[in-house]
Amino acid sequence: MSKTILIIEDDQSIAELERDYLEIEGFETELASDGKKGLEAVIQHHYDLILLDLMLPSINGFDLCRQIRERTNIPILMVTAKYEDIDKVRGLGLGADDYIVKPFSPSELVARVKAHLARYERLIQHNAPKAEINIRGLQLNTTSRQVFINGKEVPFTTKEFDLLTFFATHPNQVFSKEHLFERIWGFDSMGDNATVTVHVKKIRKKIEKDTENPPYIQTVWGAGYRFND
Fold first, then answer.
1. How many of the other CB atoms lie within 10 Å of CB of 38?
2. What is the DSSP string of 9-39?
3. What are the 4-aspartylphosphate sites (modified residues) in this protein (predicted)?
4. What is the pTM of this model?
5. Which of 32, 118, 130, 152 could form a disulfide with 38 if both were Cys (CB 3.0 to 4.6 A apart)?
6. Contact (CB, 8 A) for 183 and 146
């Protein structure tokens, strides 16, 4: 599956240049022309890497980088005309993975994107889910695909287990229903986002003491769901 890059850039010519070179290399891209639209895109969809301009309308790149990093660990590459060391240090301190100064070589941009995607893939593989996950009385065994609540086994369907495992291995992050449906069921599957809602409801009945105030899977209104570790 090809990687999807979100380009947050208010200069249309630069955004289109980045898009064209990335798509030539086989990447899928989406564009956001200001900070607010960029943040909305990150909340609603899944991306593999973000190219982030620093000087943006509505939300500047520094603030946007901080807010994105609170939600996801995917690579963030800042692309900006600012070149002072203090700006670079500040951007990296807020969670950016790299810093590219305009004007830049498109081939260098593509090379850095590929390098950071490869590095992130290695990091994910290194931090692959453990055979057993224990969270406040909830135990998942990813080898035997069993779920236990305070030592008592609770039966789970295949998709219920896959969804719960995804939540448990990505704690404290907000995922939209669209993202969850794509990750667990796939684009070509029959169904829609309501499928996610139904499965979350079933999982809550099995693991939550209080389904009205669930301690594990919380609803983030207007955004999706978050699993608390």
1. 28
2. -S-HHHHHHHHHHHHHTT-EEEEESSHHHHH
3. 53
4. 0.57
5. 32
6. no
